[in-house]
Amino acid sequence: MAGSANLNVMMKTARAAGRALLKDFSEVEQLQVSTKGPGDFVSRADRQAEETIREELMAARPSYGFLGEEGAAIEGEDPTRRWIVDPLDGTTNFLHGLPHWAVSIALEHKGQVVAGVVYDPVKDEMFYAEKGQGAFMNESRMRVSARHRMNEAIFATGLPWAGRSDLPETLQDLARILPATAGVRRFGSAALDLTYVAAGRYEGFWERRLHAWDIAAGIIILKEAGGLIDAVTPGQNPLETGDLICANEAIFAAFAKVIRNA
User: What is the DSSP string of 143-182?
Assistant: First the structure.
């Protein structure tokens, strides 16, 4: 797909950040790691990746705003446009040497995400989409899975770690969903979970208490691949609530009913 100038900037920037992260990933035991909360780690690599991304994007589009996971938000001269960035989605995987993490960059215009890139450097998989232009992985067009039976479907979610209070709620989710499906996976990167639904690798994904930078790029990629997405509470904005349910169209209603039957 021949993307817009903005999309090309996003993809180039994601690749540059990914190359730097790969170098640190190969020496993960030597990383300087600080703790910012139980089970929620931030590494030197994470901070440096966000700095690289911010510098590249702001150099290309100096009037845009910037919202990232690690640094303070930047209010741009153009109040209608901002970048939403997670420099390293799957930090805990990264720090444990697990090869499942990604760089996520989204562009928001007037409150709507209009372009998104999720780059997995380990597998060299670039997921990307622009509003109205479809979704792609590298050079291949993506579509959500065509499976329409819950008992044939695989879903993904997140699981709470030490210090989080939503374990009982998550256990209730699993007690309802596991008997109805072919399985549930927990891979540790919400950005990649969304793109995997977009690619048809599994049929749906749900999680609570996420942040905009975790999901902004993945949401437009999923939508452009034909997926449906909503907040756990119907009608709310997942980017604002951080709670979401997504799936292919055939399974979405049944899947959402199970998760919302709290």
Answer: -------GGG-EEEE----TT-S-HHHHHHHHHHHGGGSS
pLDDT of 37 above 70: no
Q: Which two tokens stand for residue 170?
A: 């998550």
Residue 59 CB neighbours (<10 A): 10
- Is the separation of the CB atoms in 78 and 65 below 8 Å? yes
pTM given for the model: 0.93
pLDDT at 42: 67
Q: Are 227 and 197 in contact (CB under 8 A)?
A: yes
Domain ranges for the chain? 5-141, 150-260
Q: Would you say 229 and 236 are in contact if contact means Cβ atoms under 8 Å apart?
A: no
- Taking the domain 150-260, which CATH number applies? 3.40.190.80
Do 84 and 212 touch, CB atoms closer than 8 A?
A: yes
Q: Distance from CA of residue 244 to its chain's centroid?
A: 12
Q: 5-141 maps to which CATH number?
A: 3.30.540.10
Query: CA–CA separation, 24 vs 29, rounded Å?
Result: 9
Q: What is the CA radius of gyration of the chain?
A: 18
Dihedral angle sign, alpha carbons of residues 261, 212, 193, 222? positive
Q: State pLDDT tens for residues 41-80.
A: 667 888 999 999 999 999 999 999 999 988 788 999 999 9
Confidence (pLDDT) at 33: 74
